[in-house]
Design a protein that fits this description.
428 residues; alpha/beta; 6-stranded mixed sheet; 3-stranded mixed sheet; 12 helices; binds guanosine-5'-triphosphate
């Protein structure tokens, strides 16, 4: 394969005032002699201090395709009219990253330019395993807690409320010997109240399409139950081909004798390959789960550079942190009626980064609750979110939060796709 050396800078909207501290031109090896040199940058994604350097090759492809789309739609009015109104060339941030495509392993191999792994012998990968794992289960069973533990970093927000996870979150756990790519998925629900629920469940299913093995998490505190609903919703007809592990989570909350009984029940009455009891919250049994996954992953090179933990951009996690705080601070229906969008993310080398966030709610009454008397509640929320975001980004930020009403956004397919529930998120 012919290699090309590229300097990649992908533009974000609006363009940052300048490159972020600690960033710099990024040298990449591409599997062609073509040179990418796109103006401006969102070097926040590639900052040497950030662990979240998304798979640049995919972003480049995504950027390239959005460029192609703009040119194409500009030359063909009919097609532009038929297209998604949110993704036209007038929306410069329409660079999309598909969450259902597996990246090309050979590209990931080349991306590891920084590492000695460019050693040509590595392509044989006799001892290296890599693959995808779908983490499925009903709401609130501890899927996100388990995924975070395995990755060793908080990528998915965790609250005591069910259905916190809305997106399929891809987390990458790497070691010199392996790379496991985990899809933390929204909890499987049978009753779909909104279009949002249906789209979330479709994303659960798509996670299994890529999977080399599946983990079904159940809550050890609950009376043992069949997991057919989870398998049907999450895997569909793929059941025969995929190794399945049942993780009996929250074992810290029940007596050892009870754990043994539950293990026996699940081994007897579910059609899974193995059952492992864990306490995801306290990290007990998590290594056993990892060992099981490793035994099921195929041999082959890594899909992603070894030093990244996710391919979601930083702005995705910023929005998730705000959403987590909403779940923690507000009650009843309000958190479920909220959608958080990052409108602006501007890196400023001489002052704090500027992040502008909107919280979309469905009703004026929800907006009033969110803001609180004299804006107090919103201020508490923004402060709590900012502290977590700063901790995550390892730098100070200026966070501006506004609340908007969009009636029935949970039923609006176009908006839902724009918000990233259609299996594609904005890359930058
Ligand atoms: N005691 C105990 N609590 C746990 C354990 N794992 C998760 N939890 C708690 O269970 C609640 C739900 O955990 P999550 O990880 O958000 O569950 P989830 O399955 O991802 O939830 P959804 O977003 O509804 O899909 C949180 O309050 C966690 O702290 C565990 O091993 N032991």
């Amino acid at each position: 394969m012919k290699l090309g050396l590229a300097v990649l800078r992908i533009s974000a909207a609006p363009p940052p005032t300048s490159a972020r501290e600690g960033g710099g031109p990024l040298l990449l090896l591409f599997p062609s002699s073509r040179i990418f040199h796109c103006e401006s940058s969102s070097l926040s994604l590639f900052s040497s201090r950030s662990p979240f350097r998304p798979l640049v090759a995919r972003l480049a492809t995504s950027f390239e395709s959005s460029q192609r789309n703009s040119i194409h739609s500009g030359s063909n009015e009919d097609e532009e009219e038929e297209g998604d109104p949110y993704l036209t060339s007038s929306n410069p941030s329409a660079s999309l990253l598909s969450l259902s495509e597996k990246p090309d392993r050979s590209l990931a191999l080349l991306d590891e330019y920084e590492l000695e792994e460019l050693d040509p012998d590595r392509s044989t990968c006799h001892n290296h395993r890599s693959g995808y794992v779908a983490v499925l289960g009903r709401p609130n069973v501890g899927k996100s807690t388990l995924s975070n533990q395995m990755i060793g970093q908080k990528l998915s927000i965790v609250t005591e409320k069910p259905q916190t996870t809305r997106h399929r979150i891809l987390g990458i756990c790497s070691d010199p010997e392996y790379q496991m790519i985990l899809y933390d998925t929204p909890g499987v629900i049978e009753k779909k109240m909104h279009m949002l629920d249906s789209m979330m469940m479709k994303n659960v299913r798509n996670a299994a399409l890529n999977a080399d093995c599946v983990i079904v998490v159940v809550d050890a505190c609950k009376v043992p139950h069949k997991i057919d609903d989870v398998l049907e919703e999450g895997i569909g007809t793929l059941t025969d081909n995929l190794p399945i592990l049942l993780v009996l989570n929250k074992k810290d909350l029940i007596k050892p004798g009870e754990i043994a009984k539950r293990l026996e029940w699940y081994q007897k009455f579910t059609n899974v390959d193995d059952v492992i009891p864990v306490s995801a919250k306290f990290g007990q049994g998590v290594d056993d789960v990892k060992d099981w996954i490793l035994s099921k992953l195929p041999f082959g090179p890594a899909y992603y550079p070894k030093d990244i933990a996710s391919e979601h951009p930083e702005r995705f996690f910023v929005a998730e942190f705000v959403r987590e705080k909403i779940f923690m601070q507000y009650r009843n229906e309000v958190p479920y009626a909220c959608q958080v969008n990052v409108l602006n993310y501007i890196s400023r080398p001489t002052s704090k980064d500027f992040i502008q966030v909107e919280i979309v709610v469905e009703k004026e009454s929800q907006k009033i609750i969110l803001i609180g008397k004299g804006g107090k509640a919103l201020k508490v929320l923004a402060t709590a979110a900012r502290l977590d975001i700063e901790d995550f980004l390892q730098k100070k930020v200026f966070l501006e939060v506004e609340v908007k009403v969009k009636e029935n956004w949970r039923q609006d397919e176009g908006l839902l796709r724009y918000y990233g529930y259609g299996g594609q998120i904005r890359a930058l």
